[in-house]
Design a protein that fits this description.
It contains 14 helices and 12 strands. By secondary structure, the protein is α/β, with parallel strands linked by helices. It has 2 domains: 129 residues, no CATH class; 217 residues, Spore Coat Polysaccharide Biosynthesis Protein SpsA, Chain A (Alpha-Beta Complex). The N and C termini lie far apart (45 Å).
């Protein structure tokens, strides 16, 4: 029992150090990105669609209402009858001057159907910068200016950006918003501080067309499960650098249910385990609150209980500060009373992520081992 107490106590101490590091990372990121200004390089935005996400019309509209000199938007889906395409057509019709179009279907053979659609869309893309963003993202009018800013440096070939949750209209959505703001954002900022932006997110991926050509285009990603991560990896291997742009996009959650959030969070966690198993193991230090609770449960010393209380108080102070400074995310502060159950849920997801080799994505079962898209659910 004493050995277990010392072990958990050591992990809790590492959690305190990790949280201090998240504050440093958030401050450094805020200072670093504030100094950038971007070029006005023409951009093609690719928007993969699959079904009707919450707030889809507003999401798509935000990409057409950009304060940017020259850009093209291509909405694409695999199924010609996808209801998201009808929304895209309506949005385009409301803006007759927009350089936008709708595409469906793809002849590209590959397990990753989203990437197959991107392969199809590239035949219609006009511009030297390509921006890809998932359909559940919403942006501000200055988004393209911020996302293209890192490309003022000719050595940068690919960039991504953070996202924050909004419109959390159910208990499950509020817990997911807390996870994004209090867990995801700090972990990304620490990774950026220590190792640089060696990652990519579906919220935004901006790629030099020349860099994409160097890696063989999207065709080289047709059988990759984690295409967002792999494209950054491949572009960097081709000789370019990656960047974390200053733009913060929004992910409106809506009235999402617990089953949806569970599948999504387990997919994220298992994918990280698949891509970076040692890094995922090291993420244990981010779960200081549940570990402190376990420590208080197995150790009879009253001082240990005070340690658990202090751990929770530090977490309550640091989490909203990091989310607010690093990503201007106010959801963590608004939902702060739920932080303890959110942290416990995150710990359970982390534990479960070590078991199983498949994830659920857009109605498909995807194997982590083969990186092949499997049967419909």
């Amino acid at each position: 029992m004493t050995l277990a107490c010392w072990g958990f106590g050591g992990l809790v101490s590492l959690s305190w150090a990790y949280w201090a590091l998240t504050l440093v990372a958030a401050w450094r990121f805020r200072r670093q990105v504030a100094q950038r200004s971007g070029p006005a390089t023409p951009v093609t935005v690719l928007k993969p669609l699959c079904g009707l996400d919450h707030g889809l019309r507003e999401n798509l509209t935000s990409f057409l209402d950009q304060d940017y000199r020259e850009f093209q938007v291509i909405f694409l889906a695999e199924d010609p009858e996808d209801p998201g395409l009808d929304v895209a057509r309506d949005v385009i019709a409301e803006r007759p001057g927009a350089d936008a179009m709708v595409l469906s279907g793809s002849s590209a053979a590959g397990a990753n159907r989203k990437v197959a659609n991107l392969v199809h869309a590239m035949a219609w893309a006009k511009h030297p910068l390509i921006v890809i963003s998932d359909s559940d993202m919403r942006v501000q009018p200055q988004y393209l200016r911020m996302v293209t800013a890192p490309f003022a440096d000719p050595a940068v070939g690919v960039a991504t950006c953070l996202y924050r949750a909004t419109e959390a209209r159910s208990l499950a959505a509020r817990l997911e918003a807390l996870h994004i703001g209090a867990d995801f954002i700090p972990s990304v900022l620490v990774a950026w501080l220590l190792m640089g932006p060696k990652f990519g997110f579906g919220s935004t991926l901006a790629i030099r067309r020349e860099g994409l050509d160097r890696i063989g285009g999207f065709d080289s990603l047709l059988d990759e499960l984690a295409d967002d991560y792999r494209v950054v990896e491949k572009v960097c291997q081709s000789g370019y650098r990656s960047a974390l742009a200053s733009g913060i996009v929004e992910c409106p959650l809506g009235p999402v249910g617990f089953s949806d959030t569970w599948r999504r969070r387990l997919r994220w966690s298992r994918t990280v385990r698949y891509l970076q198993p040692w890094g995922h193991l090291g993420a244990l230090v981010a779960h200081g609150v549940p570990m402190a609770c376990l420590l208080a449960g197995i150790c009879a010393d009253p001082a240990v209980r005070w340690l658990a209380v202090a751990t929770l108080l530090i977490r309550l102070a640091v989490a909203p500060a990091v989310a607010g400074v690093g990503a201007r995310d106010g959801e963590v502060l608004r939902n702060l009373p739920l932080l303890l159950p959110s942290d416990c849920a995150a710990f359970i997801v982390w534990l479960c992520s070590w078991f199983g080799s498949s994830v659920s994505w857009r109605g498909r079962t995807v194997s982590l081992r083969s990186e092949k898209t499997g049967r419909k659910k």
